[in-house]
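CORE FACILITY INTAKE
Project code: CF-77B
Contact: R.S. (postdoc)
Sample description: multi-component assembly, two entities in total
Requested service: structural model of the whole complex
Turnaround: standard
Below are the sequence entries exactly as provided by the requester. Do not edit them.
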Amino acid sequence: MASTELLPERSLPQRPRAPQAGPLASRIELLLELVRRDVRSRYRGSFLGVTWTLLNPLIFMIVYSLVFGKFLHVHYPGGSATVFILSGLLAWTFFSQALTQATNSIVANAALIRKVAFPWMLLSVSSVIAALVNYVISLVLLIPFMLLSHKGVGPPLIAVPALVVVTFALSLGIGLMLAAANVYFRDMQYLVTLGTLVWFYLTPVIYPWSLVESKFAGHGFEGVAAQFALYANPMTWVVLGFQDVFVFDRWPQHWHGLCYSVVVSLVLVWVGLRVFRRLRRRFAEEV
Amino acid sequence: MAGPAIEIKNVSKRFRVYHERTSSLKEALVARRRARYEEFWAVRDVSIDIAEGDSLGIIGENGSGKSTLLKCIAGILVQEKGSIAVQGRLASLLEVGAGFHPDFTGRENIYLNGAILGLPRRYITSVLDEIVEFAELEHFIDNPVKTYSSGMYTRLGFSIAVHVDPDILLIDEVLAVGDEAFQRRCIERIEALRSEGRTLVFVSHALESVRAVCDRGLWMDGGEPRELGGIDAVLAAYLAEVNRREEAELQLTTRDELDTSPGRMGIRITSVDLAGPDGPTTVLNTGDPLTLSVRYAAPNPLKGVRFSVTFLRGDGVPILTVPTDDLETGDTSLPREGTVQLALPGLPFLEGIYRLNLVIASIATGEQYKRVEKVRPFRVHSADRHEVGMALLGYSWELPRATSKAGRR
């Protein structure tokens, strides 16, 4: 040290060291903290706060059931149009919200990425978990409508967490890819908005599966294309599963489809992790 | 711990500089070519071992690659070539308060920021009061940070960061925040970490801070390591080079345009010249005689005016203002044009670059007729002097007489 002042030697008390959490434990702590931030910051400063989580799907449900049920005379099986639409709509809202937020999760934290090294992937993961938290809150909406529809709720309810896990895995896998890609191509966020809208109509949320299933035959190429899009869509089988449980109080019927969705979701998570790890190398430069 | 704390082997880092950033998909698809960019190597082939308990200061000009190297060590950037091996828990402090959420309170941000820096929640709770106290934010900790002043913001950020308790601490420039007293405590905190045997890598422009906390120095120049060694030797070599470059630049700019336009009452300053012991010059030594000649011109003889000269340090801080004596100039009528001369028998300034402000003003009203700022830069050398600081004062020391047996320090 350059200083040559004659200061009395300071005896420094040996401070207790900060505890070293293992890498996994500290990741989980950080993830929880980020989820807390995402959930809290969403509605902070808004007048209705968390009510929006319920209000949003409620309004859409009313609009859809009016337009499709009342005006277009779509017959919803199971007796209750509201329960039918809500059971798929809530899951879809979870899925699309997770994708939108995950897409922006890296770019929105640019200042942090440029200056602090930590497992950046957790930013994307936490945005998907925040959407999940929202979904769980929004499930409250289903309760009054299910009571009104006089349908019982039985053991098939156990299938709900499994369906949620599949939805989660699908959004995580795709979300990770979109988050990383958005750093390099900012168009991604607009594509995602458009893409989820198209995807929404290719998923049997606001129309019953029975209605479209009967209409594929005899429509030539378009029929085949539409059929392919609906069948290949992993969300189709998840949404049908939710409808089976909430509307019909039965175990998910489309087992083959669900197995397909599980496989797709696992592949997507694997690909998502790989893509993210590959692209993260230049995040701090490009973000 | 076997081996060095940080082992840097042949590390090179390349950046892409985009001419026109292709961040839209359309451009990428339409242009077919890859995005138009140039590559440049910000860090070229750097190899250093930093031993456990070492403190390394990295210095160099802007764009010399010192921050890039630090970010590679931190793991924020990934080098294209070479390898970096780190042993022990590493924390980087490149910007305080990065990732603060403006709508959250200080308290909430402590938990969030702490978690990002790798601190367990329970530990944060146990040192929360200490963090708040260090940041001097006892009364504001439950307000949203968007209501904080920038000083409060940085104090909170730094306070969290110094409570991260790493084996290796990387610091970039962040000491240049807060007031003097806060900076003092930050340096004390860093010195405490050092005395506990932690490894430190410090990047800064504040050379005196580097000297205060580092034992070893690395001088980066154009992405390459130029000099590695003891901090004093590296700083001396670096300063010598900076001086050389500044002098070369001074030679170019010293004949720059002086604002000779007429001010109020048509008063102009037509030239300002510096002369040292050997005639006109821009480079002087401390203690040299200095003569400053200011030529003025006016439509009418000047009466009741005051000339004043202010010496400014390189960064614009005024050191000394010398006005003419009002008694002398007050009633005297000065010719329409002429030269006023200021003579300093011995230049009191130490090493550095200095500039001048000149003012011709009314004694009665203080109205400034003509003012020119930051002109005639000149360089002062004081290499042979042992004093440190800005200017020399007359002084003498008196020491106790050594008795025959007393040991000498």
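Facility notes:
- Chain B has a mean pLDDT of 85.
- The longest strand of chain B covers residues 37-50.
Invoice: internal transfer
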